[in-house]
Design brief:
Elements (H helix, E strand, L loop, with lengths): L2 H13 L4 H7 L3 H20 L12 H8 L6 H8 L2 H21 L3 H18 L11 H15 L6 H16 L2
Helix pairs in contact: 3-6, 4-5, 6-7, 7-8
């Protein structure tokens, strides 16, 4: 088969549903979406069910963790703000992670959920994991980068967003008939 013929074959295979590369490209973000969604749901639930974490002080508490990282964070003012109400901040992070994870898994307002995940990861990178040396030992920066493709692309397949988009498209096509 020559390259000239291959071009025609690829075109005709796309008309018939595409070849495996087309399908792989179409589903490329799904594993990332599942990983980030499950991870953030787990992180949120883990915080909400850990009685020590939500306390203002004590071993394993959000308050002690924030006081420990304050001087080594990139923006100590963010930590100071969290220290005004450590348990409130802990609940905000936990509930935010839960909402982001559920939205990402369902594909519901995916770009908004991914933006929320990116902002949570950014805030944790600038505070908790900023002092990681070398920088790639801190996982919050990697999570921030992982959220960006979902911020840009959303959830085009197997999502509530895609179902709603398809429903709107079908409704608008029906209006023109």
């Amino acid at each position: 088969m020559t390259h000239g013929m291959r071009g025609g074959d690829v075109y005709s295979s796309r008309q018939n549903g595409g070849d495996w590369r087309d399908n792989a490209a179409r589903y490329a973000l799904l594993p990332l979406r599942i990983f980030l969604g499950v991870t953030f749901v787990y992180a949120g639930l883990d915080k909400l069910t850990d009685s020590a974490f939500m306390k203002d002080s004590g071993a394993g508490s959000i308050g002690d963790m924030m006081r420990t990282v304050r001087d080594s964070s990139a923006i100590p003012a963010l930590v100071d703000m969290a220290l005004k109400s450590p348990s409130g901040f802990g609940y905000a992070i936990a509930l935010g992670e839960l909402a982001v994870g559920i939205g990402t898994l369902l594909g519901l307002l995916t770009r908004l959920a991914a933006l929320g995940g990116a902002l949570i990861s950014l805030s944790l990178w600038l505070t908790v994991s900023w002092a990681s040396d070398p920088y790639y030992y801190g996982n919050d920066l990697a999570y921030l980068m992982a959220w960006l493709p979902l911020v840009l692309a959303g959830a085009p397949l197997l999502s509530v967003d895609a179902a709603l988009r398809s429903r709107r498209r079908n409704r608008s096509e029906g209006a023109y008939r």
